[in-house]
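WARN retry 2 of 3 for item q-0093 after timeout on previous attempt; input resubmitted unchanged.
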Amino acid sequence: MKTENGAAPKESAVRMFPDEWLLQFSDPYERIHAVAKKYLEAAKADDGVLKSSHHIEAAMLGKYFVEQEGLPLMAGFPNFKVGGVPPQARQYITAMHEWLRDYAAFRLERDAAETAESLEEHFAALLDENLGYDLPEQQLTQLRGFVTALQEKISSANAPCEHRRDRLLKRLEKLQSELHSKLSSLDRLYGTTMEVLVVAQTLGDKSKAVLDIAGKIFAIIWAVHSRKDGRGLSQPVVPLPLPPRGAFEVPLPIPLPFAVPNVRTGERRN
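OK item q-0093 returned
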């Protein structure tokens, strides 16, 4: 079949990684691991099935993942606008996906180990009343609401370093999924709150609101922690662990220190 000008239509190769195939993976590490394995197996077979467009697909998917991770791209990324896909470009793409396969496998193994450790601690705290930290229903509801508010504020902010913002959003999503009435540890709450306080400095007009919410979360964590391992709420005020005023390029937009909520009623004491 020919077009109106008499030339045969250009046939496009079937996609190696169709959209439906890519979207079946919700975890980015599982996705890039599967992409790398599929590409490397096809490249190793060298049976003529791989077309130029398939190499380009693999390269651009690898490039997207590396950029989302905030990692530097390997030097020599092919310029497909000049020279097509020469042997050097294919060697580069193969080396890229060998590294991506190993990197993703490491991250998946680490995540599995962290999940196992987290579940072990969770079940120990759940089934042993002497372990873990109890969150009253009202504080649990407040924490979930504050985390959701942080996700909304941070996701809508213009951040100069987007990969750090996106990493924080992923941590908040994981934190949200792990908030229960019985916590095995407060480490993730403390750690994520501290990261929020740092990243908030880069969020422009959202900085004040984000810092205020982070302060409220810290107050609840401190109250729960103090009730279990300290002397309860003998202190009327908790000093938020922030650098001194003047350490920021812009003035801190929240008062320091701030009031602690009553762990049972949620009312703030000044």
